[in-house]
Amino acid sequence: MVNWRTLLLVVCVGSLSIALPTQVSQIKALIGQPPIQLSAPQLNQRARSITVKVISGEALGSGILMYKRDSVYTVLTNDHVLKAGNPPYQILTPDGKIYEATKISPAKSLQGNDLGLLQFVAADTDYPVAQLGTTPTAETHVVAAGFPFSAQGFKDGFVIKSGQVKWVLDKALEGGYQIGYTNEVEKGMSGGPLLNRAGELVGINGVHAHPIWGDPYLFQDGSEPSDSDREKMSQYSWGIPVATFEPLVFSAATAN
User: Fold this and answer.
1) Phi-psi label, residue 57: left if phi above 0, alpha if psi -120 to 50, beta otherwise
2) Which of 14, 33, 192, 241 sits in a 20 to 30 Å window from 204, CA-based?
3) CA distances, 123 to each of 10, 73, 119, 127, 162 (Å)
4) Alpha helix (H) ranges present in 67-225?
5) d(CA 195, CA 185)
6) Could you say which architecture CATH assigns to the domain 50-129+248-254?
7) Tens of pLDDT along 175-199?
8) Residue 172: CB partners within 8 Å, gap ≥ 6?
9) Can you identify the CATH homologous superfamily of domain 141-243?
10) pTM higher than 0.70
């Protein structure tokens, strides 16, 4: 948000307040500027720095470093990731350290969305947290990050998949899923970040294309898509947009 008190130098003449022209030009230069796009290596590094592995006995999925308050970090992941295991949970951070984590926030505070929150304490290490963007529009280039899982367990490590947003639904599917994209999200990448080319967090991964179990293509209001739309939906990976989870996560994280 622009700090108008800082940017505007106001000269009072009688009852008039006049903004100096040089200050007005500075304001115009700041408003409406698009975020600076990162190079591929920079984007990879940004994604890697905020993506963690969620562990419960066996590794379960991915997560995002969302907030830091003092030495307490809040990690966002999917509820279905946490339900795949049992406490105690652990977080593997990008520097290879493992921290004990506590699940926070009852499901009702996340309003039925496929979201889960963990917190851990890292007193001696300063980890970066996600920079929030806005919900992307169709044809936006995005990258999806996380730790893929195979039949033999987690693969060697972190991956990043490039693609494009192809569909932003007018209303959300069950779990809050609303962004369809071409990135080839794999099992294990659930809970990982979806970033725009500026490295801003715009969504969270959760549903990969052509799922072999369940039916994720039901709307939150109980209605169903047409057969043709359902077929189209199955071709994309799906994520929950930042506009949905940011206020819910912030409220839950700061309440603890």
Assistant:
1) left
2) 33
3) 44, 10, 13, 10, 34
4) 79-83
5) 13
6) Beta Barrel (2.40)
7) 999 999 999 999 999 999 999 999 9
8) 178, 219, 220, 240, 244
9) Trypsin-like serine proteases (2.40.10.10)
10) yes
